[in-house]
From TrEMBL:
Region (Disordered): 1-21
Pfam families, sorted: eIF-5a, IF5A-like_N
Ranges of biased composition (kind: Basic and acidic residues): 1-12
CDD domains per UniProt: S1_eIF5A
SUPFAM superfamilies linked to this entry: Nucleic acid-binding proteins, Translation proteins SH3-like domain
Organism: Apostasia shenzhenica
Keywords, alphabetical: Hypusine, Initiation factor, Protein biosynthesis
Domain (Translation initiation factor 5A C-terminal): residue spans on this chain: 78-147
Protein name (record): Eukaryotic translation initiation factor 5A-2
Length: 152
């Protein structure tokens, strides 16, 4: 045993990483990857082609003197999915959401996807009881789906 004292500085977070390493060759369609610091869903898989929002990156086979990138590690985000009941839509595009535990959330904007945006606005205007699915990764959150659970 050592008589040395060790002092550690306290950090604001618990040190949990927002990502984890994974071999590029093991990532499949509908999986997730971090590109340029942003969490992205893999929507196309041809070699290694990824797209999300506006970001699109692709790699192809290397020549005879190169090597494939599939053995390299890339960052994969920890992704969480939560459901919230829609309470209100503000004029500025922010939504008020209610969690199962009774907490309210006011910091999310309506999605930019036109189809989903129309479904949410129309359903809310018709007085439907909507549950919005929110995906979160690397500190970003986005409304990605809705369920109509009937009239209010």
């Amino acid at each position: 045993m050592s008589d040395e004292e060790h002092h550690f500085e306290a950090k604001a977070d618990a040190g949990a990483s927002k990502t984890y390493p994974q071999q590029a060759g093991t990532i499949r369609k509908n999986g997730y990857i971090v590109i340029k610091g942003r969490p992205c869903k893999v929507s196309v898989f041809c070699g290694l082609a990824f797209s999300a929002l506006v970001v699109e990156v692709s790699t192809s086979k290397t020549g005879k003197h190169g090597h494939a990138q599939s053995s390299h590690n890339c960052d994969v985000p920890h992704v969480n999915r939560s459901d919230y009941q829609l309470i209100d839509i503000a004029d500025d595009g922010f939504v008020s959401l209610l969690a199962d535990n009774g907490d309210t959330k006011y910091d999310l904007r309506l999605p930019t996807d036109e189809n989903l945006l129309t479904q949410i606005k129309d359903g809310f205007a018709e007085g439907k009881d909507l549950v919005l699915t929110v995906m979160s990764a690397t500190g970003e959150e986005q409304i990605c789906a809705l369920k109509d659970i009937g009239p209010k």
